[in-house]
Amino acid sequence: MTDFSGLRENMVANQIEARGVRSEKVLSAMRKVPRERFLPEGLAEFAYEDSPLPIEAGQTISQPYIVAFMTEALALHGGEKVLEIGTGSGYAAAILGEIAGEVYTIEFIEDLAKSAASIFADLGYDNVHMMHGDGTLGWPEHAPYDGIVAAAAGPEVPASLKQQLKIGGRLAMPVGRDKDFQELVRVTRISEAEYESEDLADVRFVPLVGAEGWYSEPTTAKAKRIQPSPADPEEQLRSDVANACEPFNSLETADLGPLLERIGNSQVVLIGEATHGTSEFYKLRSRITSELIARKGFRFVAIEADWPDAARIDHYVRHFEFPPSEWTAFSRFPTWMWRNEEVREFVDWLRIDNAGTPPDFRVAFHGLDLYSMYSSIRSILNYLEEVDPATADIARARYGCLTPWQTDPATYGRAALIGSYRSCEAEVLQVLLEVSRKHREYAEHDGERFLDAVQNARLVANAERYYRVMYYGSRESWNLRDSYMFETLKRLQDFYGPDNKAIIWAHNSHVGDAAATEMSTRGETNIGNLCREEFRDSVYSIGFGTDNGTVAAASDWDGPMEVKDIVRARAGSYEKLFHDVGLPGFLLGLRHLSSSSLRTALSKPRLERAIGVLYRPETELASHYFRAVLLKQFDEYIWIDTTQAVHPFETAELAGFPDTYPFGL
Q1: What is the reported pTM?
Q2: CA gyration radius for the chain?
Q3: Is 137 strand, coil or helix?
Q4: Which end of the chain is more exposed for a tag (fewer CB within 10 A), N or C?
Q5: Whole-angstrom distance between the N-terminal and C-terminal Cα of the chain?
Q6: CA atoms within 13 A on the CB side of 111
Q7: For position 305, what pLDDT does the model report?
Q8: Is position 115 annotated as part of the catalytic site?
């Protein structure tokens, strides 16, 4: 039996160290990685010869010394993030995997990529991530890289690779206009625009094929993560996900056509978010919404926000009293949740899109949530002053018992419970009945604005009850809140008439079916569950998820916004599963999955992460994870592996607004 370990030691001593390679980390890696495992059958005995060897698809495995020399050229200290172009057999990537923290490797030839991925799995290189695609374009989703190495020669260093190199990082690659002979160069990035290049050695490599290599013909094939041959259920599950999903490299290039087909003729589309502060969730949600409006005739958008705040935006997008420069909505904590560049881009788009539409057919923008008693009362009184001053006087008097607590509605709830202040339920109900009684009269005056009055009256009635029940426990408060949002949706549907279509924007915890999560064991419901019971297959719910990046959130209720790093997903979670699939992003239709094994696997509960306006990484498991069955929770799931925080625009909060009960979501 061949003593490969002894041959490996001799190779390192005589072929590598003797030729001047001094990095202890490189020498140690060369001693560990079994080169024989990366060779075709019949060539293992030659694994430690001082020469390149043939592998599949007409390619070669590089000479051991060249692998060591190029790895040393990156000057790695350990723990870095490295990109490799031209995986080939996978041997060099395994060497890098012994030193770097994470290795991302790309192979143009699919069969080689599959073979290498299988070997990585067998040898336990969990930190080596394999993609089949055009290596000349790099892997931008994981950039910047501390080091980049290319095992194929191009006429010049691809601009995409240089852009993905971290400042201070190094790139090693063979370059030359002659395809048979090249110069191994090392490029160091000095600044955003400056690079320093040095020649290291004369070499001979196979051509670098791709858009920025020797062959510039564009390819229509989508880049995709190559899964190793499954050795355990999790490997099989990752493989099933990779085969079933629709991958994308960027939000702009994501193909939404199949998603729109799956949505079909749904009357209500619920679009979620895994956090209240992630730019990519907001952007892709806006893009899906604009497609639904343009291609499927959706009538209104209703968001997880206060009705009066959203009414300001509605007036703006439908060309009512607010001029284009006005943006005074969403002035209370958490201002960044809706008061950000991502939302403003959609609002501006909706205004422009509505401009060419007759007033009665313009797409509306409404709020579903019940927090702002102060704004709601003001909206009702202002409206009644215009259409019926006498009723406004009556309403003002009836609201009198509520106004002393507008700066602290929670205190009102406490006072009502101990009996020191009488409840306003009867007074608020009387106003609501009074407004409803004059429905026909008000509708004749201004049908659109009547909706504001009725909604705001209902909002105050529910908000008053909400602040009272908050002291009984979170379940009743949560259920009241989501039940109210569902009632608001139904009243909007009644207002806009038959065949209207609605788009809902809210957190995953609201739009996913609560019956498929541990919420149901606590007796909690949500708008997703209520919609499912009411509309059955005419509702389509979409959830989002991410593994890492940054998020806008606060540490404490009413605290300042911070841009926080998202902790990488925990083992046993859906987020960990989808991160390990290895794609930058994908859409996964869940309602009609064709793979029975995937349906079975996704029908088992796993942990799922939810980040709201608060994010506390130090207690993340207890604060932000819950158990869910994804297949029953959503009809569609959209994964974006690395994300960034939303971009709030500069503005001062308006004074005098009340606090809201500190839901984490």
Answers
A1: 0.58
A2: 30
A3: helix
A4: N
A5: 62
A6: 6
A7: 87
A8: no
